[in-house]
Amino acid sequence: MGILDQLKNLFGSAPSVSQPPPTPEVAATAPTPPQERRQAPRIDACMGTRAIIIDDSKTVCTVLRKFLRSAGYETIECLDAEKGLTALQQHGADVVFLDIVLPGMNGFAALRAIRRDVNTRDIPVIMMSGNEQAMEQFFGTRIAADDFMKKPFSRQEVFFRMTRLLDPSGVPRRAAHPLAHSAAEGSAANNAPTQFLRAS
What is the pTM of this model? Predict the structure, then answer.
């Protein structure tokens, strides 16, 4: 039994998302069905809540920015980890979306840098990847991320992950037990995907 099968047994089923073919990233723009909006009501951000998106795909950055800004988040997009860490130091953030496979410094190294720095160590981090080897390494090492999203993901999935991190005042906080129930609950968030990202 492979490591992913072992992890599925440990954490529950991963979010039900089809594995994308190895083609350039594509964003589809189907309208959001009313049924999905009823199933997962969006929780808007408190004024001034900032998200930093670190992903080398401009498509991922653009669509995540659209999702988050529609809910009142301020966003900063960075195409590599070095620029993302600089932006985090200069501007601060309430949550970070961090791709694993990046040019130069990868997402694992970037997360270690975030957790080592006293100024950033308490910022919640949601890691992302559609790369099977990166996912195996992620779950195998159980590094200190607060959640994980498998690409491709939908708008509903993004807000499901965000809602899990919000405190009573609507501000993202670090998960008490990062990833312990992430995979099992994540399947419920992907029943009606509407806008997908295909990216590594």
Answer: 0.68
